[in-house]
Write a structure and sequence with these properties.
Elements lengths: L2 H5 L5 E5 L4 H12 L3 E6 L2 H12 L5 E5 L5 H15 L4 E4 L13 H28 L3 E6 L23 H20 L5 E8 L8 H8 L15 H8 L10 E4 L6
Parallel strand pairs: 1-2, 1-4, 2-3, 4-5, 5-6, 6-7
Helix pairs in contact: 2-8, 4-5
Length: 259
């Protein structure tokens, strides 16, 4: 098969949770640019619709739906909406998170809320979207984790800033998601579903200048943080037939920071 055909997402129905967020919007754009039909789903339907309209104006096939992944009824409503409108699901990009915990000494209620959404809720929507993919004959799950799921915090990045109190739930959740990907690879094999994970490094978002200096000097690829385009090729690869023999992998996307 021609490599352009292998990388094409034509006729594939793809859902991205958190698709209006910083990375989510770029993920939606990349998948749609590869000719996929992409659904962005989050609690804020207005924000999702704004993203969908922006991309449709560029000729991309993007739709918005609402879901609260911490609410099982909302997850099931999304599942039925996808079934009724599209009749199939081929790819699930598991990207949505909430970050209620602010630092090591934050109240335990914040840790519990993080687990309610980012662990229990995430597993709920993952199972329901996986069921749709299985009904469609198979496909791909792409979990979005972080390099912070692989390594402890490098506190030297925060020297000279007021950012030096990383939240433990972020590390807990992302590390668990990486190994959950391996679990899914095994248990979903007979359903023709692949599961892979992307662990990005830091994404540029107008961070303080001192933080940028501390961070970027450690990155061989351009001495910079990731930009919005850096994840596009990788997400399209893992969603497409070009990655048919890539399964159970966690891909570190950090510009060589941890080489």
């Amino acid at each position: 098969m021609n490599v352009k055909e292998l990388l094409s997402l034509k006729n594939k129905i793809i859902i991205v949770t958190g698709g209006a967020g910083l990375y989510g919007k770029t993920i939606v754009e990349g998948l749609a640019e590869a000719d996929g039909t992409v659904i962005t789903a989050s609690r804020n339907l207005d924000a999702g619709q704004k993203v969908a309209e922006e991309f449709r104006d560029k000729g991309l096939d993007v739709h918005a739906m609402r879901v609260d992944q911490a609410d099982h009824k909302s997850v099931m409503a999304l599942k039925h909406q996808i079934q009724n409108k599209f009749g199939q699901l081929d790819v699930f990009v598991n990207n949505a998170v909430t970050r209620p915990m602010k630092g090591y000494n934050a109240p335990m209620e914040q840790f519990a809320e993080s687990m309610r959404v980012n662990a229990t809720g995430m597993m709920d929507i993952l199972r329901e979207m996986t069921d749709l993919i299985a009904q469609s004959g198979g496909g791909s799950i792409i979990n979005i984790s972080s390099m912070m799921g692989m390594f402890g915090p490098d506190l030297s990045n925060y020297e000279g800033t007021n950012m030096g109190d990383p939240s433990p739930d972020y590390f807990f959740h992302n590390a668990g998601l990486i190994n959950l990907t391996r679990y899914l690879t095994r248990v979903l094999a007979d359903k023709n579903i692949r599961a892979n994970c992307i662990s990005p490094g830091g994404l540029f978002n107008d961070q303080p200048q001192r933080f940028l200096e501390n961070y970027c000097k450690k990155v061989p690829s351009g001495r910079r943080m990731a930009n919005n385009d850096d994840i596009k090729g990788l997400i399209v690869l893992l969603a497409s037939e070009a990655s048919a023999y890539i399964n159970g992998e966690n891909i570190l996307m950090d510009g060589g920071m941890h080489a």
